[in-house]
Specification:
2 copies of one chain form a homodimer. By secondary structure, chain A is an alpha/beta fold. The first copy, chain A, folds into 2 domains: about 20-260, Aspartate Aminotransferase, domain 2 (3-Layer(aba) Sandwich), CATH 3.40.640.10; about 260-364, Alpha-Beta Complex (Aspartate Aminotransferase, domain 1), CATH 3.90.1150.10. In chain A, about 35% of the residues lie in helices and about 15% in strands. In chain A, helix 3 (about 75-90) packs across helix 4. At the A-B interface, helix 1, helix 3 and helix 6 of A face helix 1, helix 3 and helix 6 of B.
Chain lengths: ~375, ~375
């Protein structure tokens, strides 16, 4: 049996061990259909029960009311970069506000520009994406079809602690790297989505929570797969759903509810894990330099630099020897990124903390 | 350990047991990254090796030259229904010919109509989709940007035994339910695609083989994920690839090459399996009525009717008692559909054949 490392990958990312063990146990045959989850029809009773359970778990974890539809789609966040404007701009109202706090917001705004007028309501690029704006800095207007933001910028490790205002337009959120890390007031959102492979499951499924009235904005002229309305009308079975990925989402949300005690407990744990690493950074006398401003630090992606690229490389290599993997920062930012999603155990963060302290003592 | 049934599902469908066993064995941690295949980055060395191996296997099995790019996409065949016309119609030449031999061809033609002028070059609907056309019946013209057909109509069980002519336009094929069931002359095609969940892997990945020169038809104004060129330029890493599904495709193609002896042997076996069932139909004195004309019968989906809906229901129920599942026909056609893809073992088909004979003796 291969030993497991502490895996700090930004995504696809670590999953809970009890979830992996259950997938493994059931892989050759689920009891009912006597076939693998990989082999059963997306329209079969056993799969429909799995998808309904995944949806019910999400509704329970985030208190999502019946005024919202939950969709399980393919194509990742990239497809959402297009689907959001293609559906929500509607036929006439073709202005959207984008609050840009990092790389993914910038990409989403660029893509939206193919379909309408994008107004950048705030742009953190001149400050190198180190913070989120104060509400008073955001220039979003009621004339926009929607106001878009990224709750947690995975590459820069910059996270909103509360939703920005939508100024009477519809709030849309890419929560790809932090959905389910804490409770949210979903009623503030028109649409919130997340690809699963950071905090919710494996790559290959994206969860879209959309307020029902917004489905009416989807034009019948849209490419079939790009219409939220088409997916909603078919209960996410417009075509063959990514069955296995949805099955894992069901197991991860089971784990959150039954083994982790729900999102309040999870959030407290996430804060404890993140604080442990940021404390080492703050007490390193400048050896470790955090990327994000202190009050905008991500609980999911702890991004920091060492005094040189050589030291960063040595850090990554020696950490791997100590059973900690995938710590190199994103190629556009460099340095170190420790992604500590829900499924990263406390022991992993403690091991990294101890290593960071020793590495600084040795090389600082 | 749950017993496995003989699973005749049309898709997601049966996978080879050695593949499932390997997935199970490796599920908690791949040796190199010491993490599950579900947890490693799509840009990590170990995953890139897996994707390269899947591509190399496909190239070997189908003798695909470097003049073609192989893409691993999400969104299923439904997304291809849109992507094909959105990319291949180009900016000026907006006519496409569709040869419609069943339900999926009809849907694809309807979707293409959103993006250009669709000419139905042959339509089997008035004959209830029981056959493919003779080449002389196809009214495809050189003015079309492409000529589209479905090599195997999964619902009706109607299969082309050879490609239809493209009449100097570009041949495009939806091979979702029969790619890899035999060798093909890929040089006849401009583009051929297949969602994996019938013959190649689990739901969640679609394989697109596209001739390189056609990539130039993709406009930069397309929604990002909808551009073949964007995916090709990024080596299928335009965004996070469906890593697990691609890993299974690699294992299935390994199995075809190393355990099944390649596609010629596989094709001979597929013919043997299909003949076994069609023979029972032909010798049933009309008790079993095959849907497809004899020379257009699918080797993948054996579709037939019994004298009444009651007998069909009894057939499905008694088969399930005999460890054979998912035999009900598609809801639009009724009757029985036995899908016998590559991974359906001979023993499964023999068991079904014996059951069909006994059921007729008892109820005929």
């Amino acid at each position: 049996m291969t030993q497991r490392a502490f895996n700090f990958s930004a995504g696809p990312a670590v999953l809970p061990v009890p979830v992996l063990e259950r997938v493994q146990r059931e892989l050759l045959a689920l009891p009912g259909p006597r076939a693998s989850i990989l082999e059963i029809s997306h329209r079969s009773g056993p799969f429909l029960k799995i998808m309904a359970a995944a949806e019910a778990n999400l509704r329970q974890l985030l208190s999502i009311s019946d005024s919202y539809t939950i969709l399980f789609l393919q194509g990742g966040s990239r497809l959402q970069f297009s689907m959001v404007p293609m559906n929500l701009l509607g036929e006439t109202d073709r202005i959207a506000d984008y609050v840009v706090t990092g790389s993914w917001g910038r990409q989403a705004a660029k893509e939206a520009g193919k379909f309408g007028d994008v107004r950048v309501a705030w742009d953190g690029s001149s400050e190198n994406y180190v913070r989120t704006p104060a509400n008073s800095e955001i220039d979003a207007g009621p004339s926009a079809a929607y106001t878009y933001f990224v709750s947690n910028e995975t590459i820069e490790g910059v996270q909103f602690s509360a939703e920005p205002p939508a100024n009477n337009s519809t709030l849309v959120c890419d929560a790809s790297s932090d959905l389910l890390h804490k409770r949210l007031d979903i009623s503030r959102y028109g649409l919130i989505y997340a690809c699963a492979q950071k905090n919710i499951g494996p790559a290959g499924v994206t969860i879209v929570v959309v307020r029902n009235d917004l489905l009416e904005r989807s034009s019948d002229a849209l490419p079939g797969y790009m219409s939220y309305k088409a997916h909603a009308e078919q209960g996410s079975l417009f075509n063959t759903a990514p069955t296995f990925a949805i099955y894992v989402v069901r197991l991860v949300t089971d784990w959150l509810l039954n083994e982790m005690g729900g999102l309040e407990t999870m959030h407290a744990l996430n804060r404890q894990k993140a604080d442990m690493l940021y404390e080492v950074i703050d007490e390193s006398g400048g050896f470790y330099q955090g990327h994000a401003a202190a009050d905008c630090r991500s609980l999911m992606n702890v991004v920091f630099r060492l005094p040189s690229d050589e030291l960063s490389a040595a850090f990554v290599n020696e950490a791997a020897d100590g059973n900690m993997t995938a710590l190199a920062g994103h190629r556009s930012v460099g340095g170190i990124r420790a992604s500590i999603y829900n499924a990263m155990p406390m022991a992993g963060v403690e091991t990294l903390r101890d290593f960071m302290i020793k590495f600084r003592e040795k090389r600082g």
